[in-house]
Design a protein that fits this description.
Layout lengths: L6 H14 L4 H5 L5 H8 L7 H11 L3 H6 L5 H17 L3 H17 L3 H17 L3 H14 L5 H17 L3 H17 L5 H18 L2 H14 L6 H17 L3 H18 L2 H17 L3 H17 L3 H17 L3 H11 L9 H17 L3 H18 L2 H17 L3 H13 L19
Helix pairs in contact: 6-7, 6-8, 7-8, 8-9, 8-10, 9-10, 10-11, 10-12, 11-12, 12-13, 12-14, 13-14, 14-15, 14-16, 15-16, 16-17, 16-18, 17-18, 18-19, 18-20, 19-20, 20-21, 20-22, 21-22, 22-23
């Protein structure tokens, strides 16, 4: 028997539609049924069969599903088409407009009890919130989407789980982000749920937090698995995101030409798909790559392009993070005053709860600039703030480097014991390179 509302609700619906069309109970019933049957049905005292509902739907001029469930004909198909439109709006960087579209779709999906469409709208609202820098709202939407899909197979829940992990990552909670991604990967691989799209999404998303934690071995392995899965994945946007993430590990290994090649592949896919925010992220990473290679003029050009694209679309959190990396390039080009102004402007948009790693980078660079200007007190204050942010986030590699800077400053100002404490703290975060405190790596996919 088809999914349907309870008899009382169906009865009221039949009565309303009959009266709207000016039909008597006899006219609706004949020739297959009696007026008494229609009266009993409208009173909600009988559960109509599929055959009876088809007869009534034909007489009332409505679709069977609309009579049985109250959902207008083709509602689910129409909602899915509008979800695609909202996704395209978000892809072009219009996060606020997309959020309005998703909110309207969510209300409609909830009204008619369409679970899959409701979950998709919640996921879209989560992505919009992340784009606009509201990590708490984004995480709440992802959690609601996950609850909505609690009876669905794990691969269907992966986008919501990944959204939660990314929100924790951007908030500076690196270990918890890794924990969410690793446990989901482990469950997928151990249970034989070999869904290439779900696995690729998780491996690509794990690279960022692994790199920031100093777990380069796990990041490289995640990149290797992602590249191996890519030929099995049909979604070009997902493949493009993977290429962008893999470039990070190649860059860390000094394989600059390969990193640039991956970024070029990602950028071309994003251009074809007109996904503006992700294209901006490709400019961002290419700028970082050029900066690492000492090509500062090219780095500044790429980072300014990324910043312009993200600022235009009001992606506050991401644009602030790009601004920090642009400031580093400006400082290295001898424009420290300009870099300091840029950093002070963005520190209001990032902090312990959002963008902790980049907030620490901003304080670190301000400390270096202050130290260059012989303002040791301001330099120490910025280094200590950065240290607090990195310790909270668990960004081991950056933390070790910062402890060296702070230790050198303390030693130069005659505080040898304090300097030794800073050096020891840094060494403590270098004791286990390439690992996390999360235990064994997740099970490997059956490639």
């Amino acid at each position: 028997m088809a999914e349907r509302d309870d008899p009382e609700t169906i009865g009221r619906r039949v009565q309303r539609l009959r009266r709207e069309r000016g039909l008597t109970q006899r006219q609706l019933a004949e020739p297959a049924y009696t007026p008494a049957y229609i009266s009993t049905l409208e009173a909600g005292r009988v559960r109509p069969s599929d055959e009876a509902l088809r007869h009534l739907a034909e007489r009332l001029g409505v679709a069977f599903d609309e009579l049985a469930t109250g959902r207008p004909a083709h509602l689910a198909t129409g909602l899915r088409l509008r979800l695609t439109d909202a996704q395209r709006t978000l892809a072009t960087g219009e996060a606020e407009v997309a959020a309005e579209q998703y909110a309207a779709l969510l209300a409609e999906a909830e009204e008619y009890g369409l679970t899959a469409e409701r979950a998709a709208a919640l996921l879209g609202l989560g992505e919009c919130a992340m784009e606009l820098g509201d990590l708490v709202a984004g995480r709440q939407y992802f959690e609601r989407a996950e609850k909505c899909l609690h009876d669905a197979p794990l691969p269907s829940r992966v986008p919501a789980l990944r959204g939660r992990a990314v929100s924790h990552y951007l908030a500076g909670e690196l270990r918890y982000a890794c924990y969410l991604l690793e446990t989901t990967l482990d469950e997928l691989n151990r249970s034989g749920l070999h869904d290439p799209d779900a696995l690729l999404l998780l491996y690509a998303s794990a690279i960022g937090p692994y790199m920031d934690m100093g777990a380069h071995a796990r990041a490289a392995q995640a990149a290797e698995f992602a590249l191996a899965l890519a030929p099995q994945v049909q979604d070009p946007a997902l493949v493009a995101r993977m290429h962008r993430s893999v470039a990070r590990t190649l860059l860390a290994e000094g394989r600059l030409a390969e990193a640039d090649s991956n970024l070029a592949k990602a950028a071309e896919l994003y251009r074809q798909l007109q996904i503006r925010t992700e294209l901006a992220n490709c400019h961002w990473m290419r700028g970082y790559l050029y900066a690492q290679n000492g090509e500062l003029e090219r780095a500044e050009r790429e980072l300014r392009e990324a910043l312009a694209m993200l600022s235009e679309k009001r992606a506050a959190l991401y644009s602030s993070q790009v601004a920090v990396e642009l400031a580093d390039v400006l400082h290295r080009r001898g424009r420290s005053a300009e870099a300091a102004r840029l950093l002070r402007d963005v520190l209001g948009d990032i902090g312990p709860e959002r963008g902790a790693v980049h907030s620490a980078a901003a304080h670190r660079l301000l400390g270096i600039i202050a130290e260059d200007g012989r303002d040791t007190e301001a330099a120490e204050e910025h280094y200590v703030r950065a240290l607090s942010l990195l310790e909270r986030a668990g960004a081991a590699g950056d933390l070790a480097d910062l402890c060296r800077l702070l230790g050198d400053l303390l030693r130069r100002t005659g505080r040898v014991e304090a300097a030794l404490d800073a050096y020891r703290t840094g060494l403590g975060h270098r004791t286990a390179p390439g690992t996390t405190t999360l235990g064994p790596a997740p099970a490997q996919p059956p490639l």
